[in-house]
Specification:
single chain, mainly alpha, 74% helix, disordered C terminus
Length: 508
């Protein structure tokens, strides 16, 4: 008994030391976020509802301590019907998983298979199946997706990898051939779209700020969608061939830069809508300064790419191969780290993150065909899964009931936008392209004749800022979705009629 008592005493001492160490650890890592932020200017106290994760068996009569230690992820709902889930727990020593998010990803993955399979069977791109999956699981369907923001964020990572793979196929030599067309074309198209928007807005008595926003928003085209088109079509590679893929991707990259500039200019539209003319002048001067800043940032990005291509990317990739010793994980992590580095650099330079991913692919493609094929083989499966999430997240914002209610109006608007963008692109390219490349204008125009999915983001920001109304916001969402659905049909039709046959292309 004495020996047993002595053993228990030693065990108690050890546990006491562990308890003290655990207390010190909690004190060190605990953040007093509530106390530190409750006195910050602009912070308001608001009542929220706490909904337990297990709705079938809600936990009742929990003490405060039991509620704090509950490992489940409760959902908070504020008075504006916004829903919040736990992002960082108070006790960081206990691992937690966002079960809502996990269930959402699993559900999307399972339902995407039959939807994509069905579209493949009837001859449609699988992209439609993924969008249908999002519609079925979104607010218009089963409404089973709870972590909508998290799903959309993961889908954006798929866009990053898509543009990286596009950059792998888009060498700087090809960009050098078409950079003038790629830069001038989107600028002229945007100006013409704004002019048409102001003209029709004046006839229909729509506010100029709303006309400018809608026109600029509709002038953008979907880079991920066009990238998928180009991966399944052949492009000219011979000397003297018209490389419509280079022209199209170059114009889309410039549009991504325009997007960043437009987001920066949204405060001016807000000021203009308020009717403060003196402040509008100052805001216009500020936007001109922002244009100069973005041009400077683009020049800095080009200089950085030149330095990286000359001194860094080659030794970096060879080091990955040597240190990894054939380990696929090291190579994937190394390439992903390079993508995210370029993404952060372009973000710090106040240009689009998508452009950084594109430049990362172009830099790695400069190392040769063998390197490009190896990287594509490793990164493409990751991209394919994340792109499924991306297109499913688009389906979450498709509202079939609204489309059915206003089908006639939406079809007229969608066809008008598609035809107008197709005609404007063909007109601009007729002036910019050489005579031997004239058939390219129809292919590029078909690739640009849809509205970018980024209009969802722009529309939500504009609605919160009061630039557009709820009705205009829903119209933009619906027209964007319908134009994306029509895009593959138009692309296939134009390719069938306009792409020269091999024997014609090889002839002088």
């Amino acid at each position: 008994m004495q020996h047993q008592n002595r053993s228990l005493s030693i065990l108690d001492e050890i546990l006491e030391d562990v308890r003290k160490a655990a207390d010190r650890l909690e004190e060190e890592i605990e953040e007093h976020a509530f106390d530190d932020n409750k006195s910050v200017k602009g912070v308001n106290f608001e009542a929220v509802l706490r909904v337990e994760e297990d709705e079938a068996n809600p936990k009742q009569n929990l003490t405060k301590r039991e509620a704090e230690d509950d490992l489940g992820l409760s959902m908070l709902i504020d008075s504006q019907n916004n829903r919040y889930i736990l992002t960082k727990p108070r006790d960081a020593t206990i691992p937690r998983a966002d079960h809502h998010f996990l269930k959402d990803i699993v559900t999307i993955g399972m339902l995407s298979l039959p939807c994509g399979w069905l579209c493949t069977t009837i001859g449609l791109p699988t992209m439609f199946g993924y969008i249908i999956c999002g519609v079925l699981l979104g607010p218009s369907g089963l409404n089973s997706i709870k972590s909508v923001v998290q799903v959309e964020t993961l889908g954006e990572v798929g866009v990053f990898f898509t543009l990286f793979l596009v950059g792998l196929e888009f060498s700087p030599e090809r960009l050098r051939k078409v950079w003038k067309i790629a830069f001038q074309g989107p600028c002229y198209m945007t100006l013409l779209m704004i002019a048409f928007g102001l003209f029709w807005g004046h006839l229909l008595q729509i506010r100029p700020t709303q006309s400018v926003f809608v026109s600029t928003c509709l002038s953008l085209s979907s880079t991920p969608l066009v990238s998928r088109f180009l991966m399944g079509s052949a492009r000219g590679e011979k000397e003297g061939d018209a490389d419509y893929g280079a022209v199209l991707l170059g114009m889309l990259v410039v549009q991504d830069v325009q997007l960043g500039l437009f987001i920066a200019g949204m405060p001016t539209l807000i000021q203009a809508g308020a009717g403060s003319h003196s402040s509008v002048v100052m805001e216009t001067l500020r936007i001109l300064a922002l244009v100069g800043q973005i041009l400077f940032s683009l020049a800095a990005a080009c200089l950085l790419c030149l330095v990286v291509k000359t001194y860094l990317v080659g030794p970096y990739y060879r080091r990955l191969r040597v240190e990894g010793k054939g380990n696929k994980e090291i190579l994937i992590l190394g390439v992903s780290a390079f993508i995210f580095l370029m993404l952060m650099v372009t973000e710090l330079l106040n240009i689009s993150m998508e452009l950084g991913c594109f430049l990362a692919g172009a830099l790695i493609s400069s190392q040769g065909h063998m390197v490009t094929e190896e990287v594509v083989a490793y990164i493409e499966p990751i991209r394919d899964f994340l792109v499924i999430i991306f297109f499913a997240s688009i389906g979450l914002h498709v509202f079939p009931t609204f489309v059915v209610y206003e089908l006639t109006v939406l079809m007229v608007l969608t066809l008008s936008v598609v035809i107008m963008k197709f005609a404007l692109a063909a007109l601009v390219l007729s002036v910019l392209l050489p005579k031997s490349w004239q058939y390219v204008k129809w292919i590029v125009a078909a690739g640009l004749a849809q509205v970018s999915e980024l209009s969802f983001v722009l529309g939500s920001r504009a609605r919160r800022a009061g630039i557009i109304s709820r009705e205009v916001y829903l119209l933009i969402l619906s027209v964007t979705t319908l134009s994306l659905l029509l895009a593959p049909v138009l692309w296939r039709a134009v390719l069938t009629r306009c792409v020269p046959r091999p024997e014609r292309r090889s002839s002088p």
